[in-house]
Design goal:
By secondary structure, the chain is an alpha+beta fold. The chain has 10 helices and 11 strands.
């Protein structure tokens, strides 16, 4: 595993970005990169080869180095964002080397070549906004700023993620919750399923995720609803029920509390940017 150290003292250069939705199995083409690239898998798996072969799963990111050959190794149905940028980047063989590079200045950041995100919702929003500007002229400075902010957020999540994954059982709970997030679930039912005392489970979950169980569930449901709002024509009522809210008005209230916008306003603001 390699590590990417990036200087954000001067803005990185946005090259291009987009989203690929592949309902039929696909394999990425072979090419040599003229810049740096990031993949963020939203659904399914993406198998890529660069210095090594990597299987990138849902919720994970993978970075490719400038000047290296990349190619897909397996056919898979998937959905992923891609983002190309350029700037002052140092490729390090160890995390310690990356940390030493970042001692050059406070605006240096680093992260691993491949890692799992702690908050996919934030990255999805930032990439969607970046894609919104893709074809707009006279917006290069905006795109460069958004690109630098995206990389800074990725570095922040990378550094925050390690304490979270230490507790294996909580990781298992989170994995189960992702699969059943739209169902009628409660703290008591989850605790019983994983043989926890409800009170102890509540405290442990918050310690390792930074949120209560209810806050975490609502956050993920809102995240799911954002994708439906920008990538479907379903009504607000349909989306509320799809993501696990039985009351559409409660959903609308919670959505506005979480985002500062109504679902209708959010849909108008963030267009769907799908590039195959």
């Amino acid at each position: 595993m390699r590590y990417f150290a990036i200087n954000l003292g001067s803005l990185v250069k946005y090259c291009f970005s987009g989203k690929s939705v592949n309902k039929e199995p696909m394999r990425h083409t072979r090419r040599v990169l003229a810049d740096f690239e990031m993949f963020f898998v939203e659904d399914g798996e993406l198998w890529m080869k660069q210095d090594s072969v990597y299987g990138v799963k849902k919720g994970e990111v993978l970075f490719h180095a400038k000047g290296e050959e990349q190619c897909g190794t397996r056919l898979n149905s998937n959905s992923f964002y891609w983002f190309h940028f350029d700037g002052e980047v140092k490729i390090c063989e160890t995390e310690e080397q990356a940390r030493q590079v970042c001692q050059k200045g406070e605006k240096w950041i680093f992260f691993a070549e491949k890692f799992a995100l702690q908050n996919t919702d934030r990255i999805t929003i930032m990439l969607t906004e970046l894609n919104h500007y893709r074809f707009e002229g006279n917006s290069e400075l905006v795109k460069d700023h958004l690109s630098s902010a995206l990389l800074a957020e990725l570095a922040r999540q990378y550094l925050l993620f390690s304490p979270f994954v230490v507790h294996t059982r909580i990781s298992q709970v989170v994995g189960w919750l992702y699969k059943h997030i739209t169902e009628d679930i409660s703290v008591v039912s989850i605790a019983e399923r994983f043989s926890y005392n409800p009170k102890y489970f509540t405290a442990l979950f918050k310690k390792y995720t930074g949120r209560t169980v209810k806050e975490w569930i609502i956050e993920k449901r809102i995240s799911f609803s954002k994708r439906l709002l920008t990538n479907s024509t379903d009504s607000i009522k349909q989306i509320a029920h799809t993501v696990g809210f039985s009351d559409e008005y409660y959903f609308m209230r919670v959505f506005k509390q979480a985002t500062g916008m109504t679902p209708k306003s959010y849909r108008k603001t963030f267009c769907a940017c799908l590039y195959s």
